Amino acid sequence: MENLYIYIKSIIQLSEQGWSALQMVLSTRYFTKGEYLLKTGEICHSLFYIETGYCRAWHDYGGQTINTNFYFENEFATNIRSMKLGIGSEYFIQAEEDMKVIIFDKEKLYELFSRSVEVDTMDRKLMEEILRRQEKQAYLFKLHTARERYEYMCKIQPQIIKRVPLIHIASYLGIRIETLTKIHNAAK
Questions:
Q1: How far is C-alpha 25 from the chain's CA centre?
Q2: pTM for the full predicted model
Q3: Which candidate, 107, 177, 91, 41, places its Cα nearest to that of 185?
Q4: Which string of DSSP letters, residue by residue, matches 69-128?
Q5: Tens digit of each residue's pLDDT (9 = 90 or more) over 104-145
Q6: Which of 16, 133, 156, 157 sits most deeply, having the most CB atoms within 10 A of its CB?
Q7: Taking a C-beta distance cutoff of 8 angstroms, is the pair 29, 101 a contact?
Q8: Mean pLDDT in residue range 148-154
Q9: Nearest-CA neighbor of 80 among 42, 130, 121?
Q10: Are 94 and 56 spatial neighbours (Cβ–Cβ below 8 Å)?
């Protein structure tokens, strides 16, 4: 949990008492490659902090896989909309490697908020950070070229090229595999 502690401290100064209280509501879970953290239609009840491994978020659109995000070590994966509104997820989150995940259970976390303003503030800061990243990504995908999207992806998640199959990256960038191969080869 040391990496999680460092991550949280980079966002908010959490006291030792706040950190101890938070640790009491966290749990660790292991997912094997191919296992789902969240399935379409399920209500998301957790934030998943990734200690090791990575996962991807994807939609099944008429039998076609559309990748929408990849989450690596020291990042959070979740479906905020599903969790906040209590509605079924529109996408899957699936382990692409064996993973070790720290789970922030919504119910336990909300109960802790009533006892700790500090932890409640931390949660808001985490949500702001997650939403900031999603907003930046949405803007990029609306207004930028395939090459610019590829360059941004490599900048914020450099491990993606080494760990994610090109077919998944092409889907994520919204381009054909042939186009990605040309962009990738030109960037070398």
A1: 20
A2: 0.90
A3: 177
A4: EEE-TT-EE--HHHHHHT-B-SSEEEESS-EEEEEEEHHHHHHHHTT-HHHHHHHHHHHH
A5: 999 998 898 888 888 888 888 888 888 888 888 777 777 788
A6: 157
A7: yes
A8: 88
A9: 130
A10: yes
**55: helix, coil or strand?**
strand
Integer Cα distance of 180 and 83 in angstroms: 34
Q: Which amino acid is at 80?
A: I
- Among 11, 19, 109, 4, smallest CA distance to 50 is for 4
Give me the domains of the chain, ranges plus CATH numbers.
2-143 (2.60.120.10)
> b/e for 141-179, b at 16 or more Cβ within 10 A?
eeeeebeebbebbeeebeebeeebeeebbbbbbebeeee
| Dihedral angle sign, alpha carbons of residues 157, 159, 162, 167 | negative
Residues in the chain: 188
